[in-house]
Amino acid sequence: MSGEPAFWRGFLGRVRKLLDGGPLSEDAFAKLARHFGDPDSWAVYPDVTPALDALAERGIPLAIVSNWDSQLPRLLELRDLARYFRTISVSAIEETGKPGAEIFHRTCARLGVAAAEALHVGDSLRDDYDGARAAGLAALLLDRRGEHRDVPDRIASLAELPERLGAPAVTPRAI
After folding, report:
1. By CB count within 10 A, which of 34, 35, 116, 138 is most buried?
2. Domain of 68: which CATH number?
């Protein structure tokens, strides 16, 4: 077994082992796979849609660069978020991922921008912030929990992003 099923089976098996040392049954794997594939299992932070609306109004081309599986584009579509993005680069589809430079460079090429013209925002210090900067992009660390106060280019909420880019600030709303 290889690819995504092997990844998820290994990941969920390690989680189960950490919880109680037991094996992951076929039934538990099937239930968890259904759960992760259900768009209602995923919450959208209240700052996301207002920030995306503000950036879209300014005509800023947006993309997603994610270390995720091939279900992400469908999940974004079902959560009505895919419409904001010109391209969605997912590691499982691209067969490369963050922090490597290749996925960032492919995404910039699809947007028609040079890496030096792009800003990547993400919540992983290693994969997003350091990875994007090493690939030649500017980067902001989304630090919702305030765990990386030593990082100068950080935001606590996506509501800060439009103002950082010269657009009016946004007020998060529940969705």
Report:
1. 138
2. 3.40.50.1000
Phi–psi pair at 154, nearest 5 degrees: -135, 155
Same-domain check for residues 76 and 155: yes
61 belongs to a structural domain: yes
- For the beta carbon of residue 53, count every other beta carbon within 10 angstroms: 13
Residue range of the domain that includes 91: 48-164
From residue 3, alpha-carbon distances to 7, 71, 79, 95 in Å are 6, 13, 25, 10
Length of the chain counted residue by residue = 175
Query: What are the angstrom distances between the C-alpha of 144 and each of 6, 70, 84, 141, 152?
Result: 31, 26, 22, 9, 14
Which pLDDT tens digit goes with each residue over 107-162?
A: 999 999 999 999 999 999 999 999 999 999 999 999 999 999 999 999 999 999 99
pTM of the model: 0.85
61 and 134: one domain?
yes
Residue 155: helix, strand or coil by DSSP?
Answer: strand
SS3 of 8, please? Answer: helix
What is the sign of the dihedral through the CA atoms of 29, 72, 68 and 162?
negative
7: nearest Cα among 28, 29, 22, 23? 29
